[in-house]
């Protein structure tokens, strides 16, 4: 794995002993030296990772997803060459490659248990696989979907998780058992998200333009609220309320829901009322990826090019170039359009974007992984 030092690599860094002892804690407190507000405009590309194990003449694989362990020490990617790559964040280096050649891999997520991962298959079948990162052995298969899995969401404080599938079902699971604990039959349930308390989960249904909210303890009674994105879309084209949704996420302060879109902007919704707080206008267009559940031979599926910062105040989004940053406390115009507060310049396409949950650090990627840090001299 080749890494290209960039300007900020000359800044002093803290080193830790390499480890794959992955853990996740409930409701963590971000361990940041500076607040997000102080550093958000100063992020700069710091280290670029290029796969040097790819055979000559073959293109670099596409990064399908990015995830951090809860401690913020490890970064994981799932990639189109059926591998999982794990990186040491503090030391800025590649640590390990895990292979899933038989089943393929996408949507890889760290779990709460040390050194374990769940991910969706891309071939053979549609099972979700539970993997030990320590020795690359399978611990369990979760079988229950008859179509491609479009999203996986780990509960913030327990061993439960949600899967959405193109077979028009949502399954609820617990890591400890192979049988799903619950199943919902819905029309194209493409995306899922937990609220920060873990008491509520949301399911996005793009064809109907709806987001369904469920009480986790009584989800079998049906959704307690339905948000109509078509009604709340503001200045966005109507088509954006029916297709091209790439991400569903609650802010960590519980106030907002982010609906990522391949259209001209993203939707920032009130998490209690479902009303539009702002339409986040994208200045440089969307990435070339398809939204989950959209299929076109040769085009890579998105796992979300936007995310909240850990404090819930900012939304960051990739695109064909640059990273756009919106301040959710800023006042949108009379049409509820909010332009980016900051533009973080970078010529490479950022098709997947993820903010470290514990440190002021970003990871973005398309066919190469890029780490971002605040410029200490800015």
TrEMBL record:
<keyword id="KW-0853">WD repeat</keyword>
<keyword id="KW-0539">Nucleus</keyword>
<feature type="compositionally biased region" description="Polar residues">
    <location>
        <begin position="12"/>
        <end position="27"/>
    </location>
</feature>
<dbReference type="GO" id="GO:0016070">
    <property type="term" value="P:RNA metabolic process"/>
</dbReference>
<dbReference type="GO" id="GO:0048188">
    <property type="term" value="C:Set1C/COMPASS complex"/>
</dbReference>
<dbReference type="InterPro" id="IPR036322">
    <property type="entry name" value="WD40_repeat_dom_sf"/>
</dbReference>
<feature type="region of interest" description="Disordered">
    <location>
        <begin position="1"/>
        <end position="27"/>
    </location>
</feature>
<feature type="repeat" description="WD">
    <location>
        <begin position="142"/>
        <end position="183"/>
    </location>
</feature>
<dbReference type="InterPro" id="IPR037867">
    <property type="entry name" value="Swd2/WDR82"/>
</dbReference>
<keyword id="KW-0677">Repeat</keyword>
<comment type="similarity">
    <text>Belongs to the WD repeat SWD2 family.</text>
</comment>
<dbReference type="GO" id="GO:0003682">
    <property type="term" value="F:chromatin binding"/>
</dbReference>
<dbReference type="InterPro" id="IPR001680">
    <property type="entry name" value="WD40_rpt"/>
</dbReference>
<dbReference type="InterPro" id="IPR015943">
    <property type="entry name" value="WD40/YVTN_repeat-like_dom_sf"/>
</dbReference>
<dbReference type="Pfam" id="PF00400">
    <property type="entry name" value="WD40"/>
</dbReference>
<protein>
    <submittedName>
        <fullName>WD40-repeat-containing domain protein</fullName>
    </submittedName>
</protein>
């Amino acid at each position: 794995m080749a890494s290209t030092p960039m300007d900020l690599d000359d800044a002093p860094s803290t080193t830790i002993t390499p480890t794959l002892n992955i853990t996740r804690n409930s409701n963590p407190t971000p361990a940041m030296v500076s607040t997000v507000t102080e550093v958000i405009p100063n992020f700069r590309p710091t280290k670029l990772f290029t796969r040097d194990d790819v055979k000559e003449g073959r293109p670099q694989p596409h990064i399908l997803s990015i995830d951090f362990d809860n401690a913020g020490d490890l970064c994981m990617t799932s990639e189109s060459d059926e591998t999982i790559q794990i990186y040491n964040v503090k030391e800025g280096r590649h640590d390990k490659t895990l292979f899933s050649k038989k089943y393929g891999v996408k949507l890889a997520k760290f779990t709460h248990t040390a050194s374990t991962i769940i991910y969706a298959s891309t071939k053979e079948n549609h099972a979700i696989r539970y993997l030990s990162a320590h020795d690359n052995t399978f611990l369990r298969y979760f079988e229950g979907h008859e179509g491609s899995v479009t999203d996986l969401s780990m509960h913030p404080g327990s061993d439960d998780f949600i899967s959405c599938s193109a077979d028009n079902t949502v399954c609820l699971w617990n890591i400890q058992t192979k049988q799903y604990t619950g199943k919902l039959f819905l029309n194209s349930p493409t995306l899922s998200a937990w609220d920060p308390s873990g008491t509520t989960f949301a399911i996005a249904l793009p064809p109907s333009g709806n987001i369904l909210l469920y009480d986790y303890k009584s989800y079998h009674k049906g959704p307690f609220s339905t948000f109509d994105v078509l009604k709340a879309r503001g200045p966005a084209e109507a088509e954006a309320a029916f297709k091209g949704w790439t991400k569903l996420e609650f802010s960590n302060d519980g106030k907002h829901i982010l609906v990522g879109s391949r259209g001209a902007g993203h939707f920032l919704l009130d998490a209690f009322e479902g009303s539009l707080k702002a339409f986040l206008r994208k200045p440089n267009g969307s990435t070339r990826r398809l939204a989950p559940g959209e299929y076109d031979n040769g085009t890579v599926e998105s796992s979300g090019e936007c995310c909240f910062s850990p404090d819930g105040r900012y939304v960051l989004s990739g695109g064909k170039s640059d990273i756009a940053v919106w301040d959710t406390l800023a006042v949108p115009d009379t049409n509820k359009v909010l332009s980016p507060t900051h533009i973080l310049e970078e010529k490479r396409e950022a098709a997947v974007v993820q903010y470290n949950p514990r440190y002021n650090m970003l990871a973005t990627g398309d066919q190469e992984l890029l780490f971002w840090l605040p410029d200490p001299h800015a």
